Amino acid sequence: MVAATLISLIPFAIGLAASAVYLGRAYPAWLFWWLWISYGLLLVGELTAWWIPYLFHPEPERAARYQVMFGATHAFLPERSGGWGRSSVG
Question: Fewer Cβ close by (within 10 Å): the C or N end of the chain?
């Protein structure tokens, strides 16, 4: 779990560190694209993992996995159709 966390952290840590180095100055082109691509991919991942299943396309298998992983945490959004992202058919 620590290795996976560090691997997923690296692109954003590089972007943060480079942004701090260039604080108050214009970003070089590589940093500009690094930030747009890394945060764009983060947004796509968040949408496909959380928001699209919750709002539009239920995925019962994923909902069951998430229930095991995150079932004991506080929920800000209400359950939909009997469970997080679950359809009422399954």
Answer: N
